[in-house]
Amino acid sequence: MTMTVFDFENREVKIELPDKPIKAISVTVLSGDETGTVIFDDGTTVDFDASYWRVCDFFDGSYTVIGEQVSDWLAFRPSDGRTAAYLRQERFS
User: Fold this and answer.
1) Nearest to 3 by CA among 82, 84, 73
2) Deepest of 10, 11, 25, 31, by most Cβ within 10 A of its Cβ?
């Protein structure tokens, strides 16, 4: 399974995930980049970070996606030109 996260310039970063049920996604937005951990039903985790070269870590907030929100979060795509990480944070926190 592939998950898409966004950096501060709305560039998509593809994260490869095992094909198994997701229990939760813990998201931290740092300087407009999505970072965090995917937690699977079996207790295993995969960390992700949309940035390859962030200079400073400005903490913009964090939230956890659980239950039915997981599929909505995974399907989210930005549409109005605003920073995707902030839009998704507003919608799911």
Assistant:
1) 73
2) 25
Instruction: Give me the sheet containing 59-66, strands edge to edge.
Output: 45-49, 33-40, 22-30, 59-66
Q: What is the pLDDT of residue 76?
A: 92
Rounded-to-integer distance, Cα 31 and Cα 10, Å: 12
> Rounded to whole angstroms, how far apart are CA atoms 74 and 76?
6
For 39-51, what is each residue's pLDDT tens digit?
Answer: 999 999 999 999 9
Residue labelled with tokens 């965090």: 36
Query: What is the H or E stretch that residue 37 is in?
Result: strand 33-40
Q: Which of 65, 61, 73 is nearest to 29 (CA)?
A: 61
Residues 36/24, Cβ–Cβ less than 8 Å: no
Residues 51, 8: Cα–Cα separation, whole Å: 8
* Cβ(73)–Cβ(92) below 8 Å: yes
pTM of the model: 0.92
